[in-house]
Amino acid sequence: MLPATAAAQAQGRITPEHVEVIRKVVDKLPGFVDVATREQFEADVVRIACGAGPKATQDAAELELFLLDQDGPEPDDAERVRKRGLTKSRQGRDAMTAWRAELTPEAAAVWEAIFAKYAAPGMCNPDDPEPCTSGTPTQAQIDNDHRSLAQRQHDALVAVGRIALMSGELGQLNGLPVTVIVRTTLQDLESRAGIGTTGGGTRLPIKDVIRMGAHASHYLAVFDRATGSALDLFRARRTASAAQRVMLIARDGGCTKPGCPVGAYGCQVHHVTQDWAAGGVTNIDDLGLACPPDNRAVAPGGWTTSMSPRHDVEWTTRQPRRRTRRLDHVDEPPPRRRMDPTTEPGHRPNPDQHPPHPRTFAASTGRGGQWC
């Protein structure tokens, strides 16, 4: 909580850019700083921000932070544990994702050793016809490597991650081997255009999907955009449970309860029409994805689920009001709005004409090339 910052913003004295600067610099305060000093520090920075731009505020705040503890105690283990973290931003319009890390000395030492090997000149170069991922690169590979250090470290992360995925030693996640699962359409594969979507919601250019499909550790589920039918399942395990989970990830894309942001990797398979304990069957058209909290919320007196004729998972509760959430077709225009005088602004509905009904949500399953 930043009370002084919130008050200044509410009064229009600082901008959202100022707020972001203040939040970041307050987060840098050492853990041993007491509450009173922390509040005074925030108030001082807010006072500076009221008369300066965001950049000048940041410079002044960094100086205040330095003066606050020039000779303070060395960071201890508890402080390092508090500050450690690895976060990623939302995927941008250019399909890139920014990551930010605060590594402990141990984590930094681990990745120093990995980068020394895999980020060396000539190693893991995607521009090479056959990138060197083990052993020593040839002199030609070293001489032809024009990547920056940052680019080499990025490519090393990809290579090390791929090695880990292909090792088979990462166990299982919700019944499937830990791997990359991508869904796309036959039309996009044939045209070499469009995108695929992973089980975590990352959008992949179709050329990346095709290249990744060459690695046997990944799953690729392909749908026909026109009919929505499953056309093929590449590199899936032959066990029914694995195949069903892959197709549900491709069909649903994530938790089917409307408004839930959990992606497919964090979901469980839910018996939609009838619970397993009550005699339900484990058929693909009777299953859907649900995150653990929403899965547990389906109980007598709470939420109930059903499968619509379109194979949409519908969530129903007793509260009056009906809403429908559907995943949009990426290549279809929005439906035309039908004019209805009874729904126009200013109209007061007659309760007798609109009796209450159960609240039903229909979450589109994403068939036919639909993406979250």
From TrEMBL:
<feature type="compositionally biased region" description="Basic and acidic residues">
    <location>
        <begin position="327"/>
        <end position="355"/>
    </location>
</feature>
<feature type="domain" description="DUF222">
    <location>
        <begin position="2"/>
        <end position="252"/>
    </location>
</feature>
<dbReference type="InterPro" id="IPR003870">
    <property type="entry name" value="DUF222"/>
</dbReference>
<dbReference type="Pfam" id="PF02720">
    <property type="entry name" value="DUF222"/>
</dbReference>
<protein>
    <recommendedName>
        <fullName>DUF222 domain-containing protein</fullName>
    </recommendedName>
</protein>
<feature type="region of interest" description="Disordered">
    <location>
        <begin position="300"/>
        <end position="372"/>
    </location>
</feature>
<dbReference type="InterPro" id="IPR003615">
    <property type="entry name" value="HNH_nuc"/>
</dbReference>
<feature type="region of interest" description="Disordered">
    <location>
        <begin position="70"/>
        <end position="89"/>
    </location>
</feature>
